[in-house]
Amino acid sequence: MPENGTGTATDTKHLTLRCQFCDTWNRIDAARAADRPKCGKCSKPMLLDRPFPLNDDTFARTIEDAEVPVLVDFYADWCGPCKAMAPAVDEIAKTYQGRALVAKLDTDRAQHTAGSFDIRGIPTTIVFKSGKEVARQTGAMPKPMIAKLLDAAL
Q: Is residue 82 among the annotated active site residues?
């Protein structure tokens, strides 16, 4: 790791995310997420103040390359409890921007990934750290419980 002027290692952490508009992979400095980083190819914003959408094609690389914890909300559009929990997940994304990535995965559209994590009920929230699952909760939760789940990985 490079050193800064004080002789201590810098603690820059990155995310690798695929642009939702042009499908180009981008490496983003997590600490600068609030600066609204732009895609290197199409210049459209990478919106990290809200849950980042994942699918079967983007899930593995996003989780494995993340140098910050990743909270994934496994949901479906038709699910009542998922809809009830969505505003809390949105708030968590804004609150933890730069310290963690909050993402959503539609289990109906990403059945392969949902199946590989044995998702049997939704909403299911899983927290990943260094590419590995570190916490899981099935069922709708209020914002403080979601935050507690994520805080354990920070």
A: yes
